[in-house]
Amino acid sequence: MERIALRVPVLVEGKYDKAAVSSAVDAPIVTTDGFRVFRDAEKRALIRRISGGGIVVLCDSDGAGGVIRSYVNGIVGRDLVYPVYVPRIKGKEKRKKEPSKEGVLGVEGVGTDVIREAFRALVSRNPQLLRGGGASPPRDPVTKADFYSDGLSGAPDASQRRDLLAERLGLPPGMTAGALLAAVNVITDRDGYREAVEKTEKNG
Known about the structure:
This protein has helices at 15-22, 41-50, 63-76, 112-125, 144-149, 158-169, 177-187, 190-203; strands at residues 4-5, 10-12, 25-26, 29-31, 55-58, 81-84. By secondary structure, the protein is an alpha/beta fold. It has two domains: 4-134, Dna Topoisomerase Vi A Subunit, Chain: A, domain 2 (3-Layer(aba) Sandwich), CATH 3.40.1360; 144-203, no CATH class.
């Protein structure tokens, strides 16, 4: 089935949640890395930076998910957060040996259809979140290959280059190649990335 195309990023807890949501939603997806967001200033700065036009927050339907959701509301501001909820379904994810403390499935385990229905409910209330009415062309994201060819990864001075690009885009310094790539694909498009790289190289 066609994925729901959003114009705003989606924030989830972990990489398995990200993979599950990406099967139902066409949007940049960023993770909190669970509770890491509480102690990671870089992660918090990134979330603030990408949420200027609003951000969808989808956490597990357990107590821990509620704590993370509340924390994100605090650092971003409730008026910029569009919450999505999945139902509490008893069970255990296949990759885990034991169920969660509360015995309910996380976002990664509820299934694509459940996630899709949760986002359909969101956009029915907030149609302005749809990108191009849901019928826009697929995004042309910046890739790892672009980063490599531009010296942002795999080069002796890659970290310095990333810091210069991050500064140009209003992002925190010290980001890994993967984190910066994810951020770039949230806050700009390929043309904006190319322009930022060229200006960085010119003024570097």
